[in-house]
Design goal:
The complex is a heterodimer of chains A (168) and B (370). In chain A, 16% of the residues are buried. Helix content of chain A is 18%, strand content 44%. Chain A is of the alpha+beta class and 168 residues long. Chain A has 2 domains: 44 residues, Roll (Nuclear Transport Factor 2, Chain: A); 113 residues, Roll (Nuclear Transport Factor 2, Chain: A), CATH 3.10.450.10. Chain A contains 2 helices and 8 strands; from the N terminus they run E-E-E-H-E-H-E-E-E-E. Chain B is of the alpha/beta class. Chain B contains 11 helices and 10 strands. In chain B, strand 3 and strand 4 form a beta hairpin. Chain B is elongated, with a radius of gyration of 26 Å. Classes of the chains: A alpha+beta (168), B alpha/beta (370). The interface between A and B is medium-sized, with 20 and 26 residues.
């Protein structure tokens, strides 16, 4: 408890690479939830102890593929009702996870627990600059209220510059 | 070259599809490149595709012959009900009974496993009370088949059914389940009309008469945790309550949910420990260890309030407060990666590990009831 400020949590975490199960990285984090009814995102400071796997080659390949599509990518229901994800949509799904991380961070309080339930819709938007743009409708499941609600979010991505997420 | 044209050349600018024998591939590629003709490979290895197709067809034919139900896939309500009929007809000690009707008048079917006796102490197991939790209905089917087919050969199941009866409700919320297939995969509640509201449905696991209307349930009809106008207002809940009360000899009440990988006992409506805390905690831990022994899947154990959140009107709180000591709620795989949309290839592993946990609890109940 920090008087007049909020509640601070000190965490020790182990990150597991979803694409490389044997690979784990430790990190520490400090999360400060602000007091009061004003909804502002918790303050998060993270330190990663160790190295994250390089994904340069796969990133470049994905980037080139998306840039060279004749028709902009459009997809729905990832995963589908049965939990399936077509292999070619895996990167789109992973990018959705990044976007959901941003949304969850922006909307979390000490009384919420969010997970990405499904990518309802994704639409690629052609850009004149170097970025890839994807407009997503993401379904987030909130554990305490049990609500599954749609959120619109736009992701800009570039292999060297990473992801930039903004709520639509 | 022995080229086999699947789409013949017809006019310039129209594509041509051609099958090339392995021996000619290099020279054909070289020729096309030298002429500046663009090409792309549609099928790398045709023999591969043919072999796989042959295999698929053989497997399918075999499946047809043994007319078995694919427990590793998600099914519609009609298919599930068909399989319940199949199990009841194939095993003399398995009977399909109807304990009531849903709001939209669908039958609530329960499989009764009984090898004899009269009014034996009984175990209750239900799944799918929250319709979007598809791995639970699917697991319940696998478990039903497991118990039926292993009676007589598996010592534990045999001694269990020789002493006790088992009642299994695989689809506790059929209206919601159909809705997840036809309209909204994320639907959780029943499909009852709520007077005075445009919203539909009540959270059936906030509708039981245990701390009804208390913290952890919503009084707003549009909420996914709406407790309903009154306790037992939902026919899906009332039917189970009436059945269990009329039977009068249930010793255990077990219910399956997803997701989060938790094994919980009362209470949810209050954050104090039940009288039987020590025994339930110890049994819960033993069951979780059994689950983990198969694939390493870890389940957290504890009261509902401490483990997940305070939630009033829940089924195992009702059963416990009505004298059914061994009341447990399971939250199956996973922990959020796929959530409700668990891939079908995880159904059987989830069912297998969950069964080990259930079995551990049932064995304890059997030993304490004799």
């Amino acid at each position: 408890d920090i008087d007049d400020v909020g509640h601070k949590y000190y965490l020790e975490l182990e990150l597991e690479d979803v694409l490389d199960k044997d690979r784990t990285v430790s990190c520490t984090a400090e999360v400060l939830y602000p007091l009061g009814s004003k909804t502002s995102a918790p303050d998060v400071q993270v330190t990663v102890q160790g190295e994250l796997r390089s994904t340069e080659e796969a990133d470049q390949e994905f980037y080139n593929q998306m840039r060279s599509l004749e028709k902009e990518l459009e997809a729905e229901n990832i995963p589908d009702s049965h939990g399936n994800i077509p292999p070619e949509l895996e990167p789109i799904h992973l990018l959705a996870w990044v976007a959901s991380g941003f949304l969850i961070w922006q909307n979390s309080t000490e009384n919420t627990k969010f997970h990405l339930a499904q990518v309802k819709r994704v639409k690629q938007v052609k850009r004149s600059d170097e970025d890839l743009q994807f407009d997503y409708v993401l379904l987030l499941h909130e554990m305490v209220s049990q609500e599954v609600l749609p959120w619109e979010v736009t992701v800009l991505w570039h292999p060297q510059n990473g992801a930039r997420v903004s709520q639509s | 070259l022995q080229l086999d044209f699947w789409i013949n050349p017809s006019a310039p600018a129209l594509p041509v599809d051609v099958r090339i024998p392995a021996a000619s591939v290099q020279s054909v590629k070289a020729f096309l490149e030298s002429q500046g003709i663009e090409y792309s490979i549609l099928i790398e290895d045709l023999q591969d595709v043919l072999d796989k197709e042959k295999q698929d067809m053989a497997e399918s034919a075999q499946r047809q012959r043994s007319s078995s139900f694919d427990f590793g896939a998600y099914h519609t309500l009609d298919d599930i009900n068909e399989e319940l009929d199949h199990l009841a007809s194939e095993y003399s000690f398995v009977e399909k009974i109807q304990i009531g009707e849903s709001y939209e008048k669908r039958p609530l079917y329960v499989l009764k496993f009984s090898t004899g006796g009269s009014d034996r102490p009984a175990i209750w197991l239900d799944a799918g009370i929250h319709s979007r939790e598809w791995v639970t209905q699917a697991s319940a089917l696998w478990i039903a088949n497991k118990i039926a087919s292993d009676y007589g050969t598996d010592d534990s199941i045999t001694s269990l059914l020789d002493k006790m009866d088992l009642f299994l409700l695989p689809v506790a919320n059929p209206d919601g389940f159909v809705y997840t297939h036809t309209s909204n995969r994320m639907w959780r509640k029943t499909r009852s009309k709520i007077p005075g509201s445009i919203c539909v449905g009540v959270d059936p696991n906030r509708n039981w008469d245990a701390g009804f209307g208390g913290p952890g349930a919503s009084n707003k009809p549009c909420s996914d945790s709406y407790h309903g106008p009154s306790a037992n207002s939902e026919v899906e809940v009332k039917s189970v309550v009436d059945f269990i009360k009329n039977h009068g000899n249930f010793k255990a009440f077990l219910t399956l949910h997803s997701y989060s990988q938790l094994l919980m006992y009362p209470y949810g409506y209050k954050c104090t420990r039940p009288d039987d805390y020590a025994e339930l905690e110890s049994l819960g831990r033993a069951a979780a260890n059994s689950i983990r022994s198969l694939y390493g899947t870890t389940f957290q154990v504890g009261t509902i309030c401490k483990t997940i959140y305070q939630a009033s009107g829940g089924s195992i709180d009702w059963s416990y407060d009505n004298g059914i000591k061994y009341s447990f709620a399971f939250e199956l795989r996973d922990t959020g990666r796929y959530g409700f949309l668990l891939p079908a290839n995880q159904i059987i592993p989830a069912a297998k590990e969950t069964w080990l946990g259930l079995k551990r609890i049932m064995e304890h109940v059997r030993d304490k009831s004799s």
